[in-house]
Design a protein that fits this description.
The chain is an all-alpha fold and about 180 residues long. It has helices spanning about 1-80, 85-120, 120-130, 135-145, 150-155, 160-175. The chain is built from six helices and no strands. The longest helix has about 80 residues, at about 1-80. Keywords: Coiled coil, Membrane, Transmembrane, Transmembrane helix.
Length: about 180
């Protein structure tokens, strides 16, 4: 009887040690996954911070350009006020200039749009013909030699979104290797 109890005790000790080892391994996997997730979150936060800083810089440049144009217009109006022309003639001239500049801006925008559409028509057809997910299309266009900005324009997505996709795709490929 004592041999049976001793044998049972040894088997229970082995099972307990086995269970402890399995729990320890699971806990280590959880810790490494948590660490990699924190690292990924930090990288995403850095990317978003850089993107926000880019937007801030672009907005500041836009505001500066807008202010300089506004200052130029104010100085032009001051010059016109000092001139001794008839007010109704000046008003009509300004209206004609505004209409001409609006037409010119529209024509210029339409022409540049048509040029960009014409140049990229073949590449867009290839992208549309390419079936698959968005990441497949991004990889396809990257293999064609396009930059992230060009890919973003072709797929009507944000540049940062494309950068994130590429980065995460590379990370997942690195983990597989």
């Amino acid at each position: 009887m004592t041999i049976f109890i001793l044998f049972l005790s040894i088997i229970l000790n082995i099972i307990t040690i086995f269970a402890i080892i399995i729990l320890y391994l699971r806990q280590n996997r959880l810790l490494t996954m948590d660490h990699s997730q924190k690292q990924t979150m930090k990288e995403m936060e850095d990317i978003f911070t850089a993107y926000i800083e880019e937007l801030k810089d672009e907005n500041e440049q836009f505001i500066n350009k807008f202010k300089s144009i506004q200052n130029e217009q104010n100085s032009d109006e001051a010059i016109e006020k000092t001139s001794h022309h008839h007010p109704s003639i000046e008003k009509r001239t300004n209206e004609v200039n505004e209409v001409n500049s609006d037409n010119y801006n529209r024509m210029y925008a339409a022409k540049s749009y048509q040029n960009s559409v014409g140049m990229n028509k073949d590449l867009k057809k290839e992208v549309q013909d390419e079936t698959g997910s968005l990441i497949d299309k991004v990889i396809f266009l990257q293999k064609k030699g396009l930059t992230n900005e060009e890919i973003a324009k072709k797929l009507n997505k944000g540049k940062t979104e494309i950068e994130l996709m590429v980065k995460f795709q590379q990370k997942s490929l690195d983990k597989l290797d």
